[in-house]
Write a structure and sequence with these properties.
single chain; 268 residues; mainly beta; M1 Pyruvate Kinase, Domain 3; six-stranded mixed β-sheet; five-stranded antiparallel β-sheet; 3 helices
Length: 268
């Protein structure tokens, strides 16, 4: 779920629109207002504590001080909703009133929120509409920009040497985390292979206020680590005033990823 709690897996399919683990797909669920505007951890920081999983054809939601909610994953009679992710139009299948009531209660929101699920026949985002470095035919569900965001543990360790309080990779919501490399070396990986999968780098991931939400507490500081990143990671003129940490990739060859596989840089 966009802005939801991270789900750690040992293996995942890497498809053109991102990672897939069983019935769970990365950033294929989106919280919205009743008029279709996205709701993320920027507006509702406690969303980062909500766990969304899929088991046996059911959608499962869990959150602090909330009862577990299970509803059918596929509800064909539910409405298709027109939504917006930032400035881009996209669609989603409504997940029903039970889910809406659960999320609205959890967020203690005065206004009703709903959850939508992206399905293959619905209108997807085209990243090219926001960033012309992406291929025109590229499609994603509800990510900010790309199907894959990759970063290294070393880059976060480097950041921590400059902070009073350490952060983890979870603060930055990557799809793929790489270990055993130098800090920021992912900035130079234009074309890589991991097992069967080939990825092509498009642009650096410009960081925003969401990085100041603690993934363990759901508290937003609006300060760190973003302020510190701005002092030394304004490295990509394409991202203007957003500091870079991690890189956006498209999937050139699909396949299955396994934790522990080496990352190989491809040169042409």
């Amino acid at each position: 779920m966009k802005s939801g709690k991270a789900v750690l897996v040992e293996t995942a399919e890497c498809l053109r629109m991102g990672l897939k683990y069983g019935e769970l797909r990365d950033r294929h669920w989106l919280v919205i207002t009743e008029d279709g505007r996205m709701v993320t951890g920027r507006q509702q920081p406690r969303l980062v504590l909500v766990s969304l999983t899929c088991e046996g054809g059911q959608l499962c939601l869990n959150g602090p001080q909330m009862e577990e909610l299970r509803v059918p994953l596929h509800q064909p009679n539910n409405a298709v909703v027109d939504c917006r992710v930032f400035s881009v139009d996209v669609q989603g299948k409504d997940c029903g009133d039970d889910v809406s009531n659960w999320l609205t209660r959890y967020l203690e929101s005065d206004n009703t929120v709903r959850l939508v699920h992206f399905e293959p026949h619905l209108k997807a985002q085209r990243p090219f509409e926001k960033e012309h470095l992406f291929p025109k035919d590229e499609k994603v569900a509800y990510p900010d920009a790309a199907p894959i965001m990759l970063m290294s543990e070393a880059s976060v360790r480097d950041l921590n040497t400059r902070l009073d309080k350490d952060v983890t990779v979870f603060q930055f919501r990557p799809s793929i985390v790489v270990s055993d490399c130098e800090a920021f070396t992912e900035d130079t990986w234009d074309h890589i292979q991991i097992g069967q999968v080939e990825l092509k780098r498009v642009v650096g991931c410009g960081r925003c206020l969401f990085t100041t939400v603690d993934p363990e507490t759901g508290i937003i500081t609006r300060k760190e680590p973003l302020d510190t990143l701005k002092t030394y990671r304004l490295t990509d003129p394409k991202q203007k005033t957003a500091p870079i940490l991690g890189q956006y990739y498209t999937v050139k060859k699909t396949g299955v990823l396994h934790v522990g596989e080496p990352v190989c840089k491809i040169s042409y």
